Amino acid sequence: MAHDIQQSCEQNPTSWVYSAVQGMSDEMQTPLLADTEAPDDPSLLTPGRPTVAILGSGDFSRSLAVRLVACGVSVVVGSRCVKRIAPGLFPHAVELRNQEGAVARADRLVFLALFPEYYPSLQGLRALLAGKVLVDVSNAVELGSSAVSNAERLAEMFPESVVVKGFNVISAWTLQTGAQDGNRQVLLCSDSVEGKSEVAQLTRRMGFQPVDLGGLCLARDLESVPLRLFPSWRGPVLTTFLLFLFFYGYGFIRGLLLPYLAYGRNAFFRLALDLVNESLPAVALVTLALVYLPGLFAAWLQLWRGTKYQRFPCWLDVWLLRRKQLGLLSFYCAGLHGVYSLCLPLRTAARHRLINAAYTQVKAGVEEPWDELGVWRSDLYLSFGVLGLGVLSLLAITSLPAVGNILTWREFTFVQSGLGYAALTLSVMHTLVFGWDFAFSPKAYTFYMPPSYMIAVALPCAVLVCRCFLLLPCVSARLTRIRRGWESTRKCPIPQHHHGVGNRTLPEV
């Protein structure tokens, strides 16, 4: 669920909402629907339009009122002190009353845009709230709390009302602008099917997509959703950061620290750019291999078990769900590597090396040096790198929901799997061409330590070899049958083909 939920602000946004709503109030006086118009007199609400009450006059209440008015809904805002509401803060089509008057004007739905600690102040409205649908938009105060959810506590306080948890994952800014990206979900939960249906209908009218999560017992989890900070990114980001620390530390020890201690050679200027640029491609390559490694584990596990109906281990399930994040982080590291590489000729150290090489050439009397092998190496190395980054960019673009939603399943699979392995292959070739014959030179193993790229290329090569084994006809055919429901006799001793009546034979399941 977490990877589909757009992270939103808390119930009380910052003060910029005030100025945004004030600037939009004149434009929001008329609803977006062509068949309805906002009345000039707020007290004369058009018959037939639903009237929704909002208790509270804070930032979230103002944004919610703006969106409801824009969708042709009559809105009544209830406040403990109507006089303190500044003129022009709400659209003119919104009727401002005290809390008792607002609840009395509501047809059915009442939004509680209040902090949970103020819910007891509504006890005097219990009779008026009886039979109403109370939409609780509050969030939890802290993560991991074992206390009863705000929605469940509200249901206990008003047993004659229907409590629906929703709209707490939608920010005030999203309510003002609307669901422009077409992928804004409003999560709902309640013990009343009828109440959820009414709130879902209003949600669709507002341009959002309602998602029914079940009963009110799930309200505590729903209230903690806006408090989570990138829950699906923690593992991939930590993995990428640890990989960078490893390769950066390995390069520092091998290329800077040990030469300084052994020979007194000071090259610590490489810490800021050279060493970072050597670590980034290694991290990008290993991270991209980690995107496709769990799929290979899953395939070989299904082949070994002879069935697809056994669940994968928990660690493999989590790994499979984090492949998108790992792929985007791989693209991020590869993009940084490309930018760093473009900056290499701009360094002062590069200019000094060029001058020294020219001086050495003139001193040696060489007029036109030409290194055929070096030219081929650099051209192929750069070409594979550019192509690999280009294909990896396509993977990153298609992982966006706005792009992925317009692709068929076959197109999405082709891009993410077919082009993904192409990007991994090009990246491996980029590394191998760069290394070419360095791996066989004793000079490459300084202090008996291999270069960083040799360590980085080991896992991607293993992934590609395992993938080639899965493409063998005998292995691929068996895996296809398993994924289409076939099971080995060890798991399913019952014959899996049935002879039909008459001359017709039923196919295998």
Strand and helix layout:
Blueprint (H helix, E strand, L loop, with lengths): L15 H9 L26 E5 L3 H12 L3 E6 L15 E4 H7 L3 E4 L13 H4 L3 E4 L13 H8 L4 E4 L6 H6 L7 E4 L4 H13 L3 E4 L6 H6 L9 H30 L10 H32 L8 H8 L1 H21 L4 H17 L7 H27 L2 H4 L4 H27 L16 H19 L2 H11 L26
Parallel strand pairs: 1-2, 1-4, 2-3, 4-5, 5-6, 7-8
Helix pairs in contact: 1-2, 9-10, 10-12, 10-16, 10-17, 12-14, 14-16, 16-17
Helix fraction bin = 40-55%
Distance between the termini: 32 Å
For the biggest sheet, the summary is: 6 strands, parallel
- The share of residues in extended strands comes to 5-15%
Integer-rounded radius of gyration? 32 Å
Topology order in helix (H) and strand (E) letters: HEHEEHEHEHEHEHEHHHHHHHHHHH
Q: Helical element count?
A: 18
Query: What general form does the structure show?
Result: elongated
Parts with pLDDT < 50 across at least 5 consecutive residues: 1-47, 498-509
Helix-and-strand structural type: alpha/beta
Summed up, what is this model?
The chain has 509 residues and is of the alpha/beta class.
Describe the structure.
The chain is α/β, with parallel strands linked by helices and 509 residues long. It has a six-stranded parallel beta sheet, sandwiched between helices. Helix 4 links the parallel strand 4 and strand 5. The longest helix has 32 residues. The two termini are 32 Å apart. The N terminus and C terminus are likely disordered.
What are the salient characteristics of this protein?
509 residues, alpha/beta, six-stranded parallel beta sheet, two-stranded parallel sheet, elongated, disordered C terminus
